[in-house]
Amino acid sequence: EPEVTQTPSHQVTQMGQEVILRCVPISNHLYFYWYRQILGQKVEFLVSFYNNEISEKSEIFDDQFSVERPDGSNFTLKIRSTKLEDSAMYFCASSALNTAPYGYTFGSGTRLTVV
Amino acid sequence: AQSVTQLDSQVPVFEEAPVELRCNYSSSVSVYLFWYVQYPNQGLQLLLKYLSGSTLVESINGFEAEFNKSQTSFHLRKPSVHISDTAEYFCAVSDHTGNTPLVFGKGTRLSVIA
């Protein structure tokens, strides 16, 4: 069964450093998403991406965050200057149709720890 | 905007006992409802969904959930749990257009005890 692959599975970084979280969506999917889950809290929507641009973003997704599809396979989330409160599990997801949230496939997540 | 409440953060239950994981939602429009499961060190997997039609939906591994519009609930149940059901369970909602992102609850950790 097709999978969404996320790397790395764990990342530890120092406060103020830039991090890039990587995702390889399912090959024929067109819509891409990032969610995050701070420990003990809800899974929260960050951003959706379609046709090489952001289609929707939450208030969490401020200027410190950016997303990119640098080639035909990868979808990245960059945090420019990490803060302690960015520590969370970050999930990537992709879907074939934007009108089908039931079509989301999630990756296994990247646990980011900012120290 | 939609919201989801999962009142129980942890539910311990003995093997072969029944379990119910509660989910309530809030929305001013019609919704789609979902349960996702996260096994240790794995991603979020869709367990079951309610889109329309029969209010009782079932998964392949014995879970079921019932959409109750009057009580704005979508509780997840299983009559007899197994050790392998130990996981985190997330309830999620989106509006009927499907164009808004999924909104998740905080999750319920189900621990099945031998």
Keywords summarizing the entry:
heterodimer; A: 115 residues; mainly beta; 7-stranded mixed beta sheet; 4-stranded antiparallel beta sheet; 11 strands; B: 114 residues; 6-stranded mixed beta sheet; 0% helix
3D architecture notes:
The complex is a heterodimer of chains A (115) and B (114). Chain A is built from no helices and eleven strands. In chain A, strand 5 (43-50) and strand 6 (53-57) form a beta hairpin. In chain A, strands 2, 4, 5, 6, 9, 10 and 11 form a seven-stranded mixed sheet that branches. Chain A has a four-stranded antiparallel sheet with strand order 1-3-8-7, with no helix packed on it. Chain A is globular and about 35 Å long. Chain A has strands at 5-7, 10-13, 19-24, 31-37, 43-50, 53-57, 65-68, 75-79, 88-95, 105-106, 110-114. By secondary structure, chain B is an all-beta fold. Chain B has no helices and twelve strands. In chain B, strand 5 (31-38) and strand 6 form a beta hairpin. Chain B is globular, with a radius of gyration of 14 Å. The chains are: A mainly beta (115), B mainly beta (114). Chain A binds chain B through residues 4, 6, 9, 33, 35, 40-45, 48, 56, 58, 91, 93, 97-102, 104, 106-109, and chain B through 4, 9, 32, 34, 36, 41-46, 49, 51, 90, 92, 94, 97-107.
Write a short abstract of this structure:
The complex is a heterodimer of chains A (115) and B (114). Chain A is mostly beta strands and 115 residues long. Chain A is 0% helix and 50% strand.
Tell how many strands the DSSP assignment of chain B holds: 12
Stretches with pLDDT under 50, minimum 5 residues of chain B = none
Low-pLDDT sequence parts of chain A:
none
DSSP, total strands of chain A: 11
The total count of helices of chain A amounts to 0
How big is the Rg of chain B?
A: 14 Å
Share of helix of chain A, binned: under 10%
Number of helical segments of chain B?
Answer: 0
N-C termini distance of chain B: 41 Å
The rounded distance between the terminal residues' Cα atoms of chain A is: 36 Å
The average pLDDT score of chain A comes to 91
Overall geometry of chain A: globular
